[in-house]
Amino acid sequence: MSAEVTRTDAGRRRAPWGPGFDTWQSLFAFAYRGFATGLCVAVFALPLSAALIGIAHPLSAMPFLLLCALPLGPALSAAFHGFDAARRSGAATPFAHFWRGLRATAWRGLGIWALTLALLLFLYVDVVAVSGTPFAVLLGPLFAVLAIIVLATAPVALTVVSLPAGHGILAATKAGLYTAIRRPLLSLLTLAVLAAWILIILAQPVIGALALGGFALSLIWMNASGQLAAIGVGVGSDVSTGV
Questions:
Q1: Torsion sign, CA atoms 107, 112, 113, 115
Q2: Could you give the CA distance from residue 150 to residue 180 in angstroms, rounded to a whole number?
Q3: Secondary structure (H, E, C), the chain
Q4: Model pLDDT, residue 20
Q5: Distances (CA, A) of 66 to 102, 116, 142, 158, 201
């Protein structure tokens, strides 16, 4: 018995990759998926990037910037669809998963993203209107909370759209709003990842957008999936039963 154990241990030591080969393979697949997804999403972010570079005062052209950000909606839903497909199949084909996700979720992702940007524009106009008035002290915190809820709702709604069940915009928005309010800590974690990613993009655009974009989106997607799992929404489930 001891001789067999000794031969087994010796065989493990002689293995070229050792017992951690599966771990290294998983890390490589995760890195490849992150870089590939970040590259795909960066292509759809080109209009927004060009607008930010060409406009001297971006805040003064907020409606135009939000319009340029519209292509990001289908890209985000396609990225989330790709992450879910990779989790199901285990295949390291991020470009193919992204393309399939784009074909399956583009219009619904665009609808959810357009609604998100419209609400953010509405809040921005209200903030500008009340700034410098006596109502700013009262309405400022309210607008801030509403903006947080909108930003926390969008990733979860896009994740619901990316599921194979083919949920519609209304059901996805309902689930996103429900989880954003019911799971505030997870919502704040999503916003923290988003804020850190934006700061990196502002400091180092190439590194933030290309090198870290897919990994940031992967973290946001995993957090949104955890929020949905907490209310019973996920693979093979119905949003109406979870909410």
A1: positive
A2: 9
A3: CHHHHHHHHHHHHHCCCHHHHHHHHHHHHHHHHHHHHHHHHHHHCHHHHHHHHHCCCHHHHHHHHHHHCCCHHHHHHHHHHHHHHHHHHCCCCHHHHHHHHHHHHHHHHHHHHHHHHHHHHHHHHHHHHHCCCCCHHHHHHHHHHHHHHHHHHHHHHHHHHHCCCCCCHHHHHHHHHHHHHHCHHHHHHHHHHHHHHHHHHHHCHHHHHHHCHHHHHHHHHHHHHHHHHHCCCCCCCCHHHHC
A4: 58
A5: 21, 10, 22, 18, 17
pLDDT digits (tens, 9 = 90+) for 90-114: 777 889 999 999 999 999 999 999 9
Among residues 87, 105, 88, 86, the alpha carbon closest in space to that of 97 is found at 86
Q: Cβ(113)–Cβ(154) under 8 Å?
A: yes
Distance CA 151, CA 11 (A): 53
Q: What is the pTM of this model?
A: 0.82
pLDDT for the residue 14: 47
Q: Which residues contact 1 (CB under 8 A, 6 or more apart)?
A: none
Contact 231, 242 (CB under 8 A): yes
Q: Which residues of the chain fall below pLDDT 50?
A: 1-8, 10-19, 235-243
**CA-to-CA dists, residue 36 to 72, 127, 155, 192, 197, angstroms:** 16, 38, 20, 23, 17
